[in-house]
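Shift notes (night). Ran Sulfur carrier protein FdhD while the centrifuge was going.
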Amino acid sequence: MGRVTERRKVIRIRDGAVSSRPDTLVAEEPLEIRLNGKPLAITMRTPGDDFALAAGFLVSEGVLGAASDLQNIVYCAGATAEGSNTYNVVDVRTAPGVVLPDITLERNVYTTSSCGLCGKASLDAVRTTARWPIADTPPLQVSPELLAGLPDRLRAAQRVFDRTGGLHAAALFSEDGELLDIREDVGRHNAVDKLVGRALQSGDLPLSRTVLLVSGRASFELAQKAVMAGIPVLAAVSAPSSLAVDLAAETGLTLVGFLRGSSMNVYAGEHRIALRATAPQG
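Came back to this:
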């Protein structure tokens, strides 16, 4: 099975001095996800938590919503012409009676790359397939001070990043700031899928009392995954995209960007941020 990191020889140049040394790199390999024996999607990922990644991906697709929807997930033997197991192909089997949505090629493209359908179609697809409307979740509020402390806690928990410097991370926090889970991957969307998939497997969906923090930007795809998992607050250390903001406003998701130190921008769902009243400027 693939490893999380690999070693490669590099030529290192520092202040004009040249040396040769091994360097630790994050591993990247393709993962093909099959649904009931039929190919569905391929994603480039860091090996590890593959079953959770596949389960989380299918939550965002609207296929799975509870552990009882899942019969099993297995690596596919005979994935190569020689019949060997590459551990890069998984087959997800749904439980009897689970009704599968019509997953067309076009829908699969936009959910895996966020670059296919037009904005209106993408927004409509998420709104109509979300199992747990975020606007209907019980009231939850987090303070700016609590949010401000989360990036440092995420960074401190990134074990593989310390060795490679080349991984995205996603972390789930409780409304009180407790770190519930963290996953790393070469793809930011895979890191979120691994979190959501683990929650599905443990029977914790919907994640209606949590905050999702991502180490990069907040794309439409990440906002979509938060909505589909019932997560009410998505925070990112970098910028959101315009379509992510549109989706947040459409679904009631609280979206925070540029979370750096005590500074942040709230793009939607500000009712969940416990803001102190300030005196009007004269």
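The radius of gyration is 20 Å. The first helix runs from residue 50 to 60.
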